[in-house]
Structure formats: C-alpha cells, structure tokens
Specification:
With 361 residues, the chain is mainly beta. It has two domains: 131 residues, no CATH class; 224 residues, Beta Barrel (Porin), CATH 2.40.160. Helix content is 4%, strand content 63%. The chain contains one helix and 22 strands. It has a twelve-stranded antiparallel barrel. The protein has a six-stranded antiparallel beta barrel with strand order 1-2-10-6-7-5. The longest helix is centred in the first third of the chain and has 13 residues. The two termini are 17 Å apart.
C-alpha cells in the first residue's frame, strides 16, 4: 500500500494535467468528483482515484482503476467513496441494504427510493454490485514451490496450493487444495494431497451456519489411501477488527477411511462418526506482510485414527502486483495410525516447511 501511495503521489506531481483542474493550477482540497460513469475513491492521503467498484470483503476494496487497473485497497486507507450505480451492502446484524453508496470517514450513507440511511463503517461487512458478473464474486490464489537438486543427492520436490472463494453478502463458498510430493534418490519421501470444500451462510451477526463441509485426504506414506469427511455445523467470528480476523467452527458428521493395506483379517474401508473443530486466524502484521494460522482437527473412532489435526502457519510477504512470497510450516498428525500389512506403524507426525510463490487473482 505504501508503494501504491508513492506511485500515486509521483504521478500527480509530474502529470501535466489532472482530473478536475487545468495545467498550472494547484490541486484543490475541495475537489468534488464530477457526475458521470465512474465511481471515485479518495485515499487518506488526499489522492482521488476514478474507476469501478468491484466488491469489498475482509476490510479490502477491490477497485478497477481507470488508470492503474485492478487494485486491492485496505478500507483503513480510504477517506471517501462516491459510488456510481446501485450496490448491495452487508451490515452484520442489519443484514443487507440496497442503494447508492457514499462513504465519508466512519459513516456509510445508502440512498435508495425508500430514503437515506446511515451506518457505522465498523458494521460494514461487504459491498457488491447489484447487477454483478458472476466472476466478480470470485477471488483466489495459487502458490507453487519447487526444489530440484542433482549430484551426490538427487531431489525432486514440488508443492502446490490453490484457494478459491465465492462471496455474496449472505454466503461464502471456500475451496482449497494443498499437495506435496518429494522424491529423493529415487525414493518417494512424501506424497500428500488434501482438498477442502466449505459452504457458509451468514446469519447477520457473528454466528454463521455451515450446512456442509467436505474434506478429502490422501497420504499413502501415512497408510491412508482415501479419507473423506463430511460434516455440518456452526461458526463464530471471535474478532473482526481492522487488522485481525479470527473465526472458529465446530461440526459433526461422518468419516470414510480406506487404508493402503492392513493386517490380515482386519477390515478396510469403514464408515465412522466424526467431530470437527477449526480455527482460522488472520493478522495484518504490516501493510506488506500478513500472518495466518489455520487449525483443523477431527475426532474419530480408534480404528479410524482417534484424532487428527492439520495445522498451517503462514507468513506472507507482498512482492509486486498480485505476487506474494509465502513461508509455511505445516504439521499433520494422526494419533493412532493404522498398522500396514507388514506390521509397520507409520509415524504419528509429519512436518514440512514450504517456501512458495503465490499469485492472488
């Protein structure tokens, strides 16, 4: 964000003309955006941007600037918004309001046929266009890590992560994949794949309803050929501040586990009940660095592993454009791994440190 402000300031200083004033005239602090087809955003430094409001979620405005292209602007860096067109605005317990948008400081003004209503900025959850394209509801990221080494030791390792989010004022769909494969001197050292799908419905307060969550996990070195979990539950947003977001979830459902191999005479491919607990903590450390701690735990029957957790601790640093450098520590644990046909019990814990290049879109 500091880089963005610097670029804006330099452009405004050296451009021979500007919006709303002629060459040679000083910039007016009393500048009023002219009517037209563009929405306007004023930063807390005084600069104005014109373009199109795409959406606002998680304290971040997605804005298609007429000059800079797609931008992600922290809500805390915005002084005013003058929207063109009709928007759907989500206000927590006040649910959804539809109308024209004006934001001044800490006040949000919505003008509609029914009159003018004002809200506190701290209650604003989301902004979407009333007539929006389906693709505008989606955001995502993809991260790739690669390590290849030849010589005395031959190593081929890659990691891949993909995240997709679909947001509306009343719902959220999350799809995540994380995979890792490592071959050292021709021997498979790690090969794990995990996919999660969650659908959330917001209630208008801090609680949200999760009608379905599905996870698929495969790790043959952990003697897990296929593991699928489906559950439903509720969530609660513990913290929703300018720099910290923290939510927790709990659910119950069913689990299917099929091992690569088991001891002779032991069943394989069983269904069992499952309980789930989760936590997702996001912290904006600085304007260019974020930290996320994701914890997912499952409670199972003894023959299904008794207890499992998947913990990902990620430090993400902004680079340029939509690119980030991610450093992630991943800890997967199964309390009671299934003994294979040779009588070997897999290790309970798997630890990984991954460095990857991620692109947000």
């Amino acid at each position: 964000m500091n880089e963005f402000r610097t670029i804006c300031s330099l452009l405004l200083l050296f451009l021979p003309f500007g919006v709303g004033h002629t060459a040679g005239e000083p910039w007016s602090k009393d500048f009023t955006p002219p009517p037209g087809d563009y929405s306007w955003v004023q930063l807390d430094t005084g600069e104005w941007l014109k373009g199109e409001i795409i959406a606002m979620y998680d304290e971040t405005l997605v804005f298609d600037s007429d000059h800079f292209g797609d931008m992600w602007i922290d809500l805390s860096d915005i002084e005013q918004i003058r929207g063109v067109g009709t928007f759907n605005l989500g206000f927590g317990r006040n649910a959804t309001v539809n109308g024209n948008l004006i934001l001044r400081g800490q006040r949000v003004i919505v003008v509609s046929a029914g009159g003018t209503r004002e809200f506190d900025l701290k209650d604003l959850v989301s902004i979407t266009q009333s007539v929006e394209r389906e693709r505008d509801r989606w955001t995502g990221d993809i991260g790739v890590g690669l390590n290849v080494r030849e010589g005395n030791t031959e190593i081929s390792e890659y990691s891949l992560s993909v995240g997709l989010r679909r947001r509306t004022p009343i719902s959220r769909v999350s799809i995540d994949y994380i995979g890792n494969r490592n071959t050292t001197d021709g021997e498979l050292v790690s090969d794990s794949h995990r996919t999660n799908l969650a659908v959330d419905r917001f209630t208008g307060g801090r609680f949200f309803w999760r009608p379905i969550a599905v996870q698929y996990y495969r790790d043959e070195l952990q003697n897990i050929s296929h593991q699928a979990t489906a559950d439903a539950g509720i969530g609660y947003q513990l913290v929703d501040s300018e720099r910290v977001d923290w939510e927790v979830q709990a659910g119950a459902g069913v689990n299917y586990l099929e091992n690569v191999s088991v001891l002779p005479g032991q069943p394989n491919g069983d269904w069992s009940p499952v309980g789930t607990l989760g936590s997702d903590l996001d912290i904006e450390v600085t304007s260019w660095m974020d930290y996320e701690l994701l914890i997912n735990t499952t409670f199972l029957e003894d023959q299904a592993g008794k207890y499992q957790h998947h913990i990902v601790s990620t430090l993400s640093t902004d680079l340029i454009g939509g690119f980030d450098l991610d450093v992630a520590f991943i800890w997967d644990r199964t309390e009671k791994p299934q003994i294979d046909e040779d009588g070997i019990t897999p290790e309970q814990d798997d630890f990984r440190l991954e460095v990857s290049l991620k692109y947000d879109f």
